User: Fold Phosphoesterase from Salibacterium qingdaonense.
Amino acid sequence: MKCLLVSDSHGSETELSEVIERHRGEVDAVFHCGDSELSNDSSILEGVHTVQGNVDKPGEFPEDTAETVKGVRVYVTHGHLYNIKMTHIPLSYRAEETQARMACFGHSHHPTAFEDQGILFVNPGSVMQPRTRPEQTYAIASFDESGGAEIRFYERESAEEVTDLYASFPAGTQ
Assistant:
């Protein structure tokens, strides 16, 4: 299973569209972790699992979603309702409730990937407004048949991999 993860595009339609179209043919699903600042009928978000961010128009998208993609349960939320800038623990409880293998979030604009209690946590960063690094980033998560995963981060404009953010999670390490 392979999915594209984007977040915090903050109304940048052209840039978001470029990233999605660049990878749409090679992934099984596309997730936007909130703060798109687009309407739910935007053609850019067609076929994209999108959640509500703290600056999105209230009620435009669901607060969270849990989808199973090729056998991998993916939970997505923006993170502001789970205090994600301080700790991942409240989010971990919700991810566990949804039986997620991967929990995706945004809000902090900080690209990261880590595993805790068998759940992968991934923040793809921001495709437009990075905070802790200079790169405008997004991520691609890949799961193999044994359950192992790789998270690769890319710079938005060049599509070059940001190799120091790469994370690998072998199967059975939960």
Observations:
- The mean pLDDT is 96.
- The two ends are 18 Å apart (CA to CA).
- Residues 34 and 164 are 25 Å apart (CA to CA).
- The chain has two helices and eleven strands.
